Amino acid sequence: MTTEDALLSCRDRFPILESTNYLISNSLGAMPRDVEQSLAEYARVWASRGVRAWEETWWTMVADLGDLVAPLIGAGPGEVVFQPTVTLAHAVVFSAFDFRSGRRRIVTDAMHFPSVLYLLDGLRPEGAEIVVVPSDDGVSVDTGRLIEAIDETTAFVNVSHVLFKSAYIHDVAAIAARAREVGALTIIDGYQSVGTIPVDVDAAGLDVYIGGCLKWLCGGPGAAFLWVRPELRNRLAPRLTGWMSHARPFAFETTLDRRPDAWRFLHGTPSIPSLYAARPGLEIIRDIGINAIRAKSMRQTAMLLRLADSLGLNCTTPRDPGRRGGTVAFDTPHGYEVSRTLKSREILCDFRPGAGVRLSPHFYTRDDDLIEAVHTMASILEDGSWALHGRSSSPVT
Ligand SMILES: Cc1ncc(COP(=O)(O)O)c(C=O)c1O
Fold this sequence. Notes:
By secondary structure, the chain is α/β, with parallel strands linked by helices. It has 12 helices and 12 strands. It binds pyridoxal-5'-phosphate (PLP).
């Protein structure tokens, strides 16, 4: 059996693959069958153990699950803690900076996820100067321009490792090297990277790495995570904080004595059901291994590009495999309608303005799934059936 056959042998662990061509793992990874059992276990523990669940299992789950994420980003045990969302994890870290008495500049780029750009914008009244490096082509951001924007007044750089629209992989090591030279920190949003490309926070010289399980880690909503370089922790005292970061949370003291470890970045009660839901996906990906996932992803995204070329469809995705993450965006006419038509035919994908129809193979995708999706896309454009699937009132596309 080849490695890829072995990856396909786990298809029966994902119920939705029986009925759909699932090409949307950049948005919501397929649910592992074991999630049902895991959530049932959550209910059983709550029902039978009641409040004792906290001391027996629930209290440490934010860190126990973090230990499953740590090897995926090159971090050590105890260094990753769970957070409810990627946006909130950023807000926690950002709240540790004082832009009035400290460095003022923050460097980011126009291709960063909007939610985080909104947060950064909100730091202006606190004295932050936000430098948003533009993209020339709507696909990538020039590393040289980012590096040029980082100077001695820079507090931190914050970009996505893999850009959500185009799947362009930033050269985060080069960015971090410049940041370190001038004493600035590098805070990376890895939501589109962890689970599809290998990450090594140490080798890349990063300071903070944030990601989540919803997409490539097949873990469902409410399970994001945060890593802060251990030597840096005690320099950061987030104002967005709470009782879980206290060294003695059950003493209920009125002043905060922050823990020195990764728990320092926690705040309120974690979303325990989300952690139960996230575990099976993390275990499957641990067992498969990220290098096998990346090798297959590079082969299948290249295959998508070849299929597009052969049918005259335009793709905005980087051609350089070293700069290409797990998604291929097809910039077709009527992209939104095409994506809705594909969905109506059980080919699940999404559409983003400025990117196009996005197809994201994952370790469970067959080559035939890709052939079917791209040929169907071409025929929808050719026969005009996209016109039957106009904009609906649904806010979720
Ligand atoms: C790169 C990136 N960052 C942040 C987010 C938002 O994450 P959350 O909804 O967990 O705050 C997304 C969601 O798609 C994303 O792709």
